[in-house]
Automatic annotation (TrEMBL):
It comes from Aquilegia coerulea. Keywords: Heme, Iron, Metal-binding, Monooxygenase, Oxidoreductase. Heme binds at residue 420. Belongs to the cytochrome P450 family. One of its GO terms (biological process) is secondary metabolite biosynthetic process. GO terms for molecular function: heme binding; iron ion binding; monooxygenase activity; oxidoreductase activity, acting on paired donors, with incorporation or reduction of molecular oxygen. It comes from the Eukaryota. Gene3D superfamilies: Cytochrome P450. This is Cytochrome P450. The keyword Heme applies.
C-alpha cells in the first residue's frame, strides 16, 4: 500500500511535467526553422554590423536563402520570427493577431502610447486625432508656411556657398519645418536647443537595451525625458492661449482643441507627447533621407534630373516675383513625386518593422507563439524582379500607374490601415524643397566615395558633400 501511494504521488507530480515537455516538443516541431542563438542577444549584433556595413539587404537575402521566407531567431532581447514577401507584408499591416509592440529601445525612448505601439481602437483613436491636422484639406493651408521655411533655409545655408554637406542640412530643414508645423516654434535659441536634444534621442532607437551609464541607450533615454519636458511646456503654453489662435495653426493646438470639445478622438497629454515624438522621428528621418538621396542620385542621372528641372521651371515661370507656392502648384509636380517614390523604393528609410503576437498565431504553415516578436523585411518586395522588373534601375515611370503595382508590394509609406498618416506632409515638404533646389542650384558630388551605411537609417559617407553653383536668386521667381 505504501509503494502504491508513493508511485501514485510520483505520477501526479510528474504528469504535468511530462505534458509540458510533450507540448513544448509539439510546439517546437511547429516553429519556423533557424536557431534562437545566445539568449537575449541572439543575432542582434550580426544584424547591427550588417546594417552599419550597408549589407543589411544581403543579410536578409542570405537568411531567406538558408531558412526560407520564415525563420526564427533572437533580436534585441526577444524571441523573433523573421518574415518577408507580399503575403508577409499583408500579414504585418492587417493581421488582428498582432500588435505594434516595438523593441524595448523604441518603446522606452518614444513612449508606450506612441502610434507605432498602439493597436485596435486605441490606434484608430490616436490616428484619427492626428489626421484632423494631417489631412490634405488642412495641410493645404500650410503650403505657404513650408515654402517660407524652405526659402529661409536655402538663403541661410546654400546661397553664396561653393560646397555644402547635404544630409545635416536636410535634417536641419525638415526639423525646422516640423517645429513650425507641429509646435509653431519660431527660429531661435529654443529650436536650436530642441534639435540637439532630439538628435541625442534618436541615436539609441536601435541599440542593445542596456540602461547603463555612457551607453547609447542610456543617453537616448535621458534625451527623451528632456524632449518630453519641452513638449509638455509647449502644451501648457498653448493651452493657456489656444482660444486666441487658429485651431489648425499647429498640431499641438489642433490636438488640444479635441480635448476642449470632448471629441471621440480626445488624447491625453501623454498621448500628445508620445504622438509628437513619433511624428518627429518619422518625419525628420523619412523626408531628410529622401531629399538627401534624391540629390545624390540626380547628380549622376541627367535624364531624370532634366525631366524634374523642366517640370519645376514651368511652375516657376507661372509665378510672380516673391509669390509663394500653392497646393495647385504641387499637383503639377507629378514626375518629381514619381522620382521621390522610386527613390523610396530603392533606398527606403525604414529598414524593417516589428510587431508582437497577441496570441498563438499561424503564418506560412508555422506557429508563432504568443508574445513573440515578428520582424518583417517589408522592403524586400521592392527588390523583387517579378514585381519591379530590373529592380536596380532607377525608373520613376514605374509609378505612372500605381494601380498596376500589386497590393502590399510597395510599402514606402506603409500600406492598408497602417499607411503613414504623415504621407501628405512628407509629400509637401519634399516637393517644395525640390522646387527651390533644382530651380536655384546646380550641383555635383565631391569625391569618389559616395556610399552609405545604415545606423539604422541610411547615412551617406561624410554626409554627402557636394559642390554647388547658384543659377538664380532665391528672392525672385
Amino acid at each position: 500500500m505504501y509503494y502504491f501511494a508513493f508511485f501514485f504521488t510520483l505520477l501526479v507530480c510528474l504528469l504535468p511535467i511530462f505534458l509540458f515537455l510533450k507540448k513544448t516538443r509539439i510546439l517546437s516541431n511547429r516553429l519556423p526553422p533557424g536557431p534562437l542563438g545566445i539568449p537575449f542577444i541572439g543575432q542582434s549584433l550580426s544584424l547591427l554590423r550588417a546594417m552599419r556595413a550597408n549589407t543589411g539587404e544581403k543579410w536578409f537575402e542570405d537568411r531567406a536563402e538558408k531558412y526560407g521566407p520564415i525563420s526564427k531567431l533572437t533580436l534585441f532581447g526577444n524571441p523573433t520570427v523573421f518574415i518577408h514577401g507580399q503575403a508577409a507584408n499583408k500579414f504585418i499591416f492587417t493581421s488582428g493577431g498582432l500588435n505594434n509592440k516595438q523593441p524595448k529601445p523604441v518603446s522606452t525612448i518614444l513612449g508606450e502610447r506612441n502610434l507605432m505601439e498602439l493597436s485596435g481602437e486605441d490606434h484608430k483613436r490616436v490616428r484619427g486625432a492626428l489626421m484632423t491636422f494631417l489631412k490634405p484639406e488642412v495641410l493645404k493651408q500650410s503650403v505657404g508656411k513650408i515654402d517660407q521655411e524652405v526659402r529661409e533655409h536655402f538663403e541661410a545655408y546654400w546661397q553664396g556657398k561653393d560646397t555644402v554637406t547635404v544630409m545635416p542640412l536636410m535634417k536641419n530643414l525638415t526639423f525646422n519645418i516640423m517645429c513650425a508645423l507641429l509646435f509653431g516654434l519660431e527660429q531661435g535659441e529654443k529650436r536650436e536647443k530642441f534639435v540637439k536634444i532630439f538628435e541625442q534621442m534618436v541615436e539609441g532607437l536601435w541599440s542593445i537595451p542596456l540602461n547603463l551609464p555612457f551607453t547609447r541607450f542610456n543617453r537616448s533615454i535621458q534625451a527623451s525625458s528632456r524632449i518630453q519636458n519641452m513638449i509638455m511646456d509647449i502644451i501648457h503654453e498653448r493651452r493657456s492661449g489656444r482660444h486666441e489662435a487658429n485651431t489648425y495653426q499647429d498640431l499641438i493646438l489642433s490636438l488640444l482643441s479635441l480635448q476642449a470639445s470632448d471629441n471621440a478622438t480626445f488624447l491625453s497629454d501623454q498621448e500628445i507627447v508620445d504622438s509628437i515624438r513619433i511624428i518627429m522621428v518619422a518625419g525628420h528621418d523619412t523626408s531628410s533621407i529622401l531629399l538627401t538621396f534624391l540629390i545624390r542620385h540626380l547628380a549622376n542621372d541627367p535624364v531624370v534630373y532634366s525631366a524634374i528641372v523642366k517640370e519645376q521651371e514651368e511652375i516657376a515661370k507661372s509665378k510672380t516675383s516673391g509669390e509663394l507656392l500653392t497646393w495647385e502648384d504641387l499637383t503639377k509636380m507629378k514626375y518629381t513625386w514619381r522620382a521621390a517614390l522610386e527613390m523610396l523604393r530603392i533606398v527606403p528609410p525604414a529598414f524593417a518593422m516589428f510587431r508582437r503576437t497577441l496570441r498563438d498565431i499561424e503564418f506560412g504553415g508555422y506557429l508563432i507563439p504568443k508574445g513573440w516578436q515578428v520582424f518583417s523585411a517589408a522592403n524586400m518586395t521592392h527588390r523583387d524582379e517579378s514585381i519591379f522588373p530590373e529592380p536596380s534601375k532607377f525608373d520613376p515611370n514605374r509609378f505612372e500607374n500605381q494601380a498596376s503595382i500589386p497590393p502590399y508590394c510597395y510599402v514606402g509609406f506603409g500600406a492598408g490601415p497602417r499607411i503613414c498618416p504623415g504621407y501628405e506632409f512628407a509629400r509637401i515638404e519634399t516637393l517644395v524643397a525640390m522646387h527651390y533646389l533644382v530651380t536655384r542650384f546646380k550641383w555635383k558630388l565631391c569625391g569618389n566615395n559616395n556610399n552609405y551605411k545604415r545606423d539604422p537609417t541610411p547615412i551617406p559617407t561624410q554626409g554627402l558633400p557636394i559642390q554647388i553653383e547658384q543659377i538664380n536668386k532665391l528672392q525672385n521667381h
